[in-house]
Amino acid sequence: MVVSMVSILLSVGLAWYVGYIANQIFNRDPKRPPVVFHWFPFIGSAVTYGIDPYVFFRQCRAKYGDVFTFVLMGRKITAYLGVKGNDFLFNGKLADLSAEEAYSHLTTPVFGKDVVYDVPNHVLMEHKKFIKSGLGFDQFRAYVPLIVNEMHDFLAKAPTWGPGKSGVADLLATMPVMTIYTASRTLQGEEVRAGFNAGFADLYHDLDQGFTPINFIFPWLPLPRNKRRDRAHNIMAETYLNIIKKRRAAHENPGTDMIWTLMGSRYRDGRPLKDHEIANMMIALLMAGQHTSAATIMWILSLLGSKPEVIEMLYEEQKRVFGKELRPLDFDSYKDLHLVNYVIREALRLHPPIHSIMRKVKRNLAVPGTKIVIPAGHHLLAAPGVTATDEEFFAHAKDFDPERWNSRVNEDEGDVERVDYGYGLVTKGAASPFLPFGAGRHRCIGEQFATMHLCTLVSTFVREYKWTTVGGVPKVDYSSMVALPLGPVKIAWERRE
Ligand code: HEM
């Protein structure tokens, strides 16, 4: 009896499976995006996408064209590659595409309630406006020397750096810490930076563990680390709430850091921000800038170490702009550091930290110029990193060649259409092949801060060290939410005379 039940179930399962495979091969509906062939239902293309999304995208593009659907752990993801795909996603209408529905299950437990994707889009736009007002040139002028001081303190004591004349540094072990110290000292204020000397780093680590692909795919799994994530969020939020309370009670003159900026911000109807909104926004900012900037400085140092002649050109540029004696860095001179800016762009072109940008499709969407309709319920995916490394737009696209930017008009600047989604004018030009900071209503507001931060880090390294990359430029590790270099990431450094 039991045996016959099992064989019936097996036969039904097998018939279903054969139908599933046959459906993929023979039942192609021209009005739907082609589905990437996969042997395993539910899992779909998770393994190939997860190992190297760009290899996966390019192979699928060659086989299916710019628009295709793949299955990722039960979700239907429709990728739209190329500049048209970038534009389609970044400039999509609010009624058609939702970032909140794509990301909120991942971000809300980490950032907390009532901020970012836990609020309606118009509230996020107002929040972005408040944050942007705290990221001005006056702040940046003050931040540059703070970053330099933090770097000196950190590098003097950091393992694999230290006060010696030469050494081999482990970037993966040191750069994320240095990034968080420098970013927190500036953007987050003195109290938060002090917190990193006193246990904040462990909390940050626990919170960060909530930001993994597994949380994106299975947000409901009762993992022990999700408990640690929630505990870390509560303690960190409490820390910010105490800072806000103390500042209020002290009746000090408001300063210019981000907490002060948010404490002084008012919604359009005159309401101030609630304390927990400020606390959660600060956590969101800490997380948004950390991995992206840490990954980028590691890529920059590795790429430069593979072409030490560019390090010497950067050193010459420092002397040209700051004089032979190398007077201290100042933000107002950064506009003249052309090569540093090209280096940052080139690293972001080759290794944009965010490889997949997602939105949930809210109603059926016709793809212009084709018969294809992307069904509601799918996730739409754009990958600007594909166009950024495409020979069609960048000759010798795989080469690290910062000087290519010298002769290139920046598609993001100049006489292009601009639009205001509520947080200031941004370029509409999402059809650009180079969009490491995104575009449209969800465009990054941290770009200027990140550029100032990276410019200061690179300039300081160049002034003080020469280095070469040990073992070649690393491969990419796609196992976390951002594209990090695959360890070990080592450089052999030598202190300049
Ligand atoms: C190299 C550094 C960085 C890179 C490459 C980067 C990249 C991006 C990208 C691609 C987006 C768009 C995401 C989407 O459309 O789904 C974005 C949004 C955003 N980023 Fe950054 N980012 C960087 C640094 C920062 C920093 C330092 C901050 C904070 C100071 C920050 C805060 C934000 C915020 C608030 C958003 C808006 C999210 C939204 O509206 O949905 N980012 N970033």
Automatic annotation (TrEMBL):
Its cofactor is heme. GO terms for biological process: ergosterol biosynthetic process; methylation. It is found in: Membrane. GO terms for cellular component: cortical endoplasmic reticulum; membrane; perinuclear endoplasmic reticulum. It comes from the Eukaryota. The chain crosses the membrane at residues 39-57. Belongs to the cytochrome P450 family. This is Sterol 14-demethylase. PROSITE patterns: CYTOCHROME_P450. Keywords: Heme, Iron, Membrane, Metal-binding, Monooxygenase, Oxidoreductase, Transmembrane, Transmembrane helix. Pfam families: p450. The keyword Transmembrane applies. The keyword Zinc-finger does not apply. Heme binds at C444. GO terms for molecular function: heme binding; iron ion binding; methyltransferase activity; sterol 14-demethylase activity. InterPro entries: CYP450_sterol_14alpha_dmase (IPR050529), Cyt_P450 (IPR001128), Cyt_P450_CS (IPR017972), Cyt_P450_E_grp-IV (IPR002403), Cyt_P450_sf (IPR036396).
